Amino acid sequence: MTGRRKLIAGNWKMNGLKAQLGEVSAIGELAAGRPDIDVALFLPATLISAAAPLAGTVLVGGQDCHQEEAGAFTGCISAPMLLGAGAGGTLVGHSERRTYQHETNADVAAKAARASQHGLEVVLCVGETLDTREQGDEAAHGWVVDQLLASLPEGAGSGWLTIAYEPVWAIGTGKVATPAQIAAMHGALRDALVEALGADGQAMRILYGGSVSGDNAADILHLDNVDGALVGGASLSAAKFAPIIAAA
Ligand SMILES: O=C(CO)COP(=O)(O)O
């Protein structure tokens, strides 16, 4: 036993209208049946205030927050706004934001620090592209460890921060990393966290994400140093999310 509670988290990305709120209630019911694990849903900001009262014990979060407290940043959402809408957490550094919004490691660290100042739980995402993976496992480990260390906020702590390893080539592609690839990367990330944070690095959760489904969840969730999953497509419906929660 590691002492780390499993976290099964869904990321709805740019999906979800009010008509889908029934899925949040249904996922809340699934979570009520598993008090031994944590369940979270990272929803579009437009749904947070309506979803929070329906979610039961599920932590409802945003998918990004701006590093500044407030100001002239049209279209952006601040940590206090997420909190005010009823969120208990946020993702930062998802590869889609690193790619399409050009977020840097320094941005990601600043976003995480700001979110934690406001008491939000944070899931910080890292992961390599196919080009990097094709340079070999050692190169991929080194690259992702460097990305993690450069994205870690000041005062990183296992009480509020979770890491998610999401290989970019496995996101939305149906190409899940092999159990051996996942175990090796999570081991490398664990070693880096322990070196950077000591005992707290041992206590910090590391999730896997990338084409997780009911079919592969059990094989992934029982690997050493895999403390849960960050699930995209299969979190959009309670029916598809249920077997992943059951596998935890
Ligand atoms: O990016 C992901 C979760 O943040 C993974 O998405 P998929 O599960 O759809 O591959």
Automatic annotation (TrEMBL):
The keyword Cytoplasm applies. The active site is at 94 (electrophile), 166 (proton acceptor). It is an enzyme of class 5 (isomerase). Its EC number is 5.3.1.1. Pathway: Carbohydrate metabolism; erythritol degradation; Carbohydrate degradation; glycolysis; D-glyceraldehyde 3-phosphate from glycerone phosphate: step 1/1; Carbohydrate biosynthesis; gluconeogenesis. Keywords: Cytoplasm, Gluconeogenesis, Glycolysis, Isomerase. InterPro entries: Aldolase_TIM, TIM_sf, TrioseP_Isoase_bac/euk, Triosephosphate_isomerase, Triosephosphate_isomerase_AS. Involved in the gluconeogenesis. Catalyzes stereospecifically the conversion of dihydroxyacetone phosphate (DHAP) to D-glyceraldehyde-3-phosphate (G3P). This is Triosephosphate isomerase.
